[in-house]
Amino acid sequence: MVGHQGITETFTLKSLTDEEYLLPGNAACPGCAAVMAMRIGLKALGPRTVLIVPACCMSVAQGHYPKTPSKVPVFNTAFAASAATASGIRAALEMKGITDVYVVCWAGDGGTADIGIQSLSGAAERGDDLIYICYDNEAYMNTGTQRSSSTSEGARTTTTITGKAERKKDVPGIMMAHRIPYVATACASYPLDFANKLRRAVSIKGTRYIHLLSPCPPGWRYPSEKTVEVGRLAVETGAWILYEWTGGRCRLTGPSSGLADRSRRRPLEEYLRIQGRFSEADPSKIEAMKKRIDEEWEMILELCKG
Question: Locate the Thiamine pyrophosphate enzyme TPP-binding domain: which residues (predicted)?
Fold first, then answer.
């Protein structure tokens, strides 16, 4: 399923197609990282792609009926049903003998970590042949920035006005526990890292999962022109780790590959300071966040040893 699109061994800016599969004029907020990532993702996947989008920001951004900026088929489905819908579409394609189409879920963190985790787990347990991308803007942004289980510890939302007390749910870890063939993290601010992970995902059969950090200007409370900078700070401070897990083996990717040594990371405060949602985080909360980040790094580095 890879060769028919002429996907190269490693994507570079020059090897990404000039063809656009997500056109200008979409309904996304200015500075939306999810739309930036979808534009790159569709360039990596190509025209033989079906997108399944549950209720989320992207169900609005990809177009109000009867018009859409998407040049590939898009199936809008219920909040909880994206993976189940993808499983059904894959089964229908196979019954028709169509094997050269990528079936891709593009769902938010609410529709993945919370409402949609049952259907995602079911698809993973069955090993259904689909790619599931969670674009994680760390809250229910489409309905007014309510807390999700994927919201970062310490972040203010409309339902955690003093900052979320609990740690962020580790959905990639949950998917690794399903023993699916491919799990990866990505960040919209590193498009080539994301594109190359998609390239590796399409070369594998079965359920593949990519968890994509997607900064959100209105929800995270930063100027829309700062989206790429915010995403890069998430990675450079170690708050978001880029890695991929395949065949039981884990490796760090992109800038994260040089950040195993904590001294090489930028101070976490640089990432927090640029976002209004952390404006009331006191020193004790920041120290707790640093501790959680260190624990996450220890876990990932231990996986990479294996």
Answer: 74-211
Domain at 3-305, CATH class: alpha beta
The residues near 2 (Cβ < 8 Å, ≥ 6 apart) are 199, 202, 203
pLDDT at 9: 53
Q: What residue spans define the domains of the chain?
A: 3-305
**How many Å is the Cα radius of gyration of the chain?**
18
- Name residue, tokens 């976002």: 275
Q: If we measure between CA atoms, which residue out of 22, 19, 74, 84 comes closest to residue 50?
A: 74
Q: Which amino acid is located at 146 in the chain?
A: Q
Q: CB burial class (10 A; 0-12, 13-18, 19+) of residue 110?
A: buried
DSSP state of 239: S
How far is the CA of 69 from the CAs of 19, 74, 112, 200, in angstroms?
A: 13, 10, 24, 26
Output the pTM of the full model. Answer: 0.95
Handedness of CA 119, 253, 298, 241 (dihedral sign): negative
